[in-house]
Amino acid sequence: MKKLLLSSIAVSFLMAPTLFADEEYNHFPALQATDTSVAICNLNNFNAKLQAILNKPQIEVEDMVKVHELTYTLENAVQRLQQDLVVIADDLERAHKASESLQQDVLRTSSNAYLSALELLLQPKECKS
Q1: Source organism's superkingdom (predicted)?
Q2: For residue 75, which of 116, 117, 5, 27 has the smallest C-alpha distance?
Q3: What is the per-residue DSSP string for 1-56?
């Protein structure tokens, strides 16, 4: 009986946004990804939580609600990385074109910007818990 009640509440909660799509509703609170390092830490921490749920033999309704909650922070982190990758790609393209046109200053500036930004993605960072 308890599982049925919890399931009904969870399903009602998950369906509420579609029932009131025209009205503004509150989402779960999400951590913002204010910079690349924060985004990576959020991905590491929240991916571990997601993986722990996925490792369960049976995913309960409560787990699905938890995944729903986790995805808000994960989406913010992924969006931040998408923005960062656009800038990284632009810097790399500028370096590429500068190498074709023999523009040493542009090549150096763009390449350094590319390497600095990419280092944040490739080097493991210490995350605050």
Answers
A1: Bacteria
A2: 27
A3: -HHHHHHHHHHHHHHHHHHTTTS--PPPP-----SHHHHHHHHHHHHHHHHHHHTS
Q: Which stretches of 1-129 are assigned E, i.e. beta strand?
A: none
Question: What pTM, to 2 d.p., does this model score?
Answer: 0.74
Cα 35 from chain centroid? 11
CB 53 within 8 A of CB 63: yes
- Tokens 């830490």 -> residue: 41
Tokens describing residue 15? 């369906």
The helix (run of H) or strand (run of E) holding residue 60 is none
Q: Which two tokens stand for residue 93?
A: 């393209």
Chain centroid offset of residue 54 CA: 18
